[in-house]
Design a protein that fits this description.
Distance between the termini: 38 Å
Number of domains: 2
Order of helices and strands: HHHEEEEEEHHHEHHEEHHH
CATH superfamily of the largest domain: Jelly Rolls
Mean pLDDT: 84
Shape: globular
Number of strands: 9
Largest sheet: 6 strands, antiparallel
Helix content: 40-55%
Amino acid sequence: MTDRVPAVLEVHDCCQDEALKQLSVTRPEPVRSLPARPAKRPFVKNVILARLSLQQLAAIGECLEPVVLKERMVLQEPKKPVEHVYFVESGLVSLQVVAAGSMLETAVIGYRGVVGTSFLWGGHFSTHQSVVVFPGSAYRICVEALRRIMKVHPEIRDHLFEYVQALTFQCVQTGLCGVRHHREERLATWICLASEAVDARVLPVTHDYLSSVLGLRRAGVTETLIHFEEQGLIRKMRGVLQIDNPKSLKEKACCCYKLVSAAYVSSSVRTLGEGHAS
């Protein structure tokens, strides 16, 4: 996978220009500045950025930096300062709780979401570990720069809070799901939510990973996936899982799937037209 991401907004870290030179990710060449009120709207896939008005997008675009999300890249560590917020464009990020040598996934974040939202309620340290599961791309912004922009454009904060409500609900529901629902239901739910998070039916995921994030025995995961394949719901290949019958797979999922999915839909209930009125 290439280390360069096509830039659709001008890239500039408003806080740490020198620090960026030390990053392992290759920084794309800057493109022309985004006009204050562009005649044509730049394309962004991230749902939160896409909901911003042209004026808000121009303001935040001056401080957004495109980055490549590589598999297993750690975006944030627990109990470490939150320095950047990542607006995910593609790929999948796992939000994990790590304690006493054990790990449990509480949520997955794709193009509908953001990594690093703990700063919104005054948190200076990350409460979770954020790890890239599927490679992709994102736009990141320095927390201090985003705070300054939100003072001028408080609607951006409103959009973030609406998303955080859905993310928090997923974290809580995941905990309940882990103690109340059976293996088959939990696996179907994870696959369906991950598919929606990346807007794809082909997921580069292994049995080992599913076993670790769901706290299930690997043999049990393998047995359930074989059962799903025999029913024509999925197709397993080496390191890849393809969803062949999403409707029937959703019926296998527990109620947590519908609840979490609905929470993300409601967090983006306003249409783009309404959000872009200003």
